[in-house]
Amino acid sequence: MAYLTLRGINKIYPNGFHAVHDFNLEIEKGEFIVFVGSSGCGKSTTLRMIAGLENISKGDFLIDGVRANEKGPRERGVAMVFQSYALYPHMSVYDNLAFGLTLQGVDEDVIEQKVKKTAGILGLTDYLDRKPRALSGGQRQRVAVGRAIIRKVDIFLMDEPLSNLDAKQRVTMRSEITQIHRETGATTIYVTHDQTEAMTMADRIVVMKEGYIQQVGTPYDLYFNPVNMFVAGFIGEPPMNFIHSTLKGGKLDIKGNVVDLGAIADKDVLKKYEGKELVLGFRPEAIRLAGSEDLENAYKLSCAVELTELLGDNTNVYVDIHGIKTILKVEPHESPEIDTKLTFAIPYENVYLFDKQTEKRIRLKGFAK
Predict the structure, then answer these.
(1) Which of 2, 12, 180, 222 has the most neighbouring CB atoms within 10 Å?
(2) CA 177 – CA 79 distance, rounded (Å)
(3) Could you give the 3-state DSSP secondary structure of residue 328?
């Protein structure tokens, strides 16, 4: 039996707004689960229902097989880290870390031992006498995390804890939180709108849209095997390119570039979608530039280069396929000149097809997808 079970969870507010629809998920003990999606998708609301800060309108929430719907936050044995640091400004770092243990009546010697150990883990030993206003954003976030882990609970809940940090601090804190998770072994549920955080930290990711789960899987599954256009476009940076075209005679005409789907799709599949609008998808980094290398078993498309962005380890190339805007990712030494023409190829194994009407992925032949 799973450690945490969410069965048919719904959240309906008094005004009738349905924030979360039929949420089903089983979480194993010690897993690091990330809820990801755009603002307003219901991920934080779901986290708050798990924490006991929001009532569950319908469905069952079980902790280790025991229904917990009616239990309060303290009874559920959870510790939560919020987007705002929620530190006590008049208290030192030491007192902020010790506060929860003090309320529980823990002996002062034990508190001191735990505070020093937690501060050591988080690199806060030299800051225990400082007030929060004397700390950087990253240091304040470490204190907030420390206040959660010092209690040694079985479940950590984190609601966009890194959103107030700058890019460098977020990278550092990502690795620190992942390391803390490994050391504590606690079950962790982490909410973010940043797909990079989700991909680098999670054992499994739950992608949400408008209150519905779109897909649950490992970072690898979501990147290489998205079930629909939303997941395919949400996971990956830059996002997957989508090109719309109508299937005629088993082929897509992409502004004069003919793509014969017979090379990647079964005939029965093509017959089913004949005359319908399909969406061809490919990731910017999955392409190859035409050159000396052999580009067999690939679709070749011609385009015009509009803009390039050198990012150091790669270059984003913004191109126009006769009116269709597309992004390519290439090696820095392959960066093309602006206002030039180029041909790129999409290997068959890197092509995705979607039904325009349902936005669901169409299964292809011969490849993992």
Answers:
(1) 222
(2) 14
(3) strand
* Residues in contact with 273: Cβ distance below 8 Å, sequence separation at least 6, in sequence order: 247, 355, 362
DSSP label at residue 219: H
Instruction: Give residue 87's pLDDT.
Output: 87
Gap between the Cα atoms of 39 and 334, Å rounded? 36
Place of tokens 């385009």: 303
Query: Measuring CA to CA, which residue among 341, 365, 253 is closest to residue 299?
Result: 253
CB count in 10 Å sphere of residue 182: 10
CA distance readout (Å), 283 to 87, 225, 249, 304, 363: 42, 12, 26, 18, 17
Number of H helices, E strands in the chain: 10, 21
CA atoms within 13 A on the CB side of 166: 4
- What one-letter code names the amino acid at 144? A
Q: Which helix (H) or strand (E) holds 135?
A: none
β-partners of residue 32 are 188
- Give the span between the Cα atoms of 28 and 220, in whole angstroms: 19
Phi, psi angle pair for 133, to nearest 5°: -65, -20
Would you state the pLDDT for residue 176? Answer: 83
Q: Are 284 and 318 in contact (CB under 8 A)?
A: no
| 78 torsion bin: left (phi>0), alpha (psi -120 to 50), beta (else) | beta
Residues 6+ apart with CB under 8 A from 250: 260, 261, 262, 265, 267, 270, 274
Structure tokens at 24: 């089903």
Closest-CA residue to 88 (of 110, 103, 107, 106): 103
> Do 329 and 314 form a contact (C-beta atoms < 8 A)?
yes
Amino acid at 53: L
Confidence (pLDDT) at 369: 47
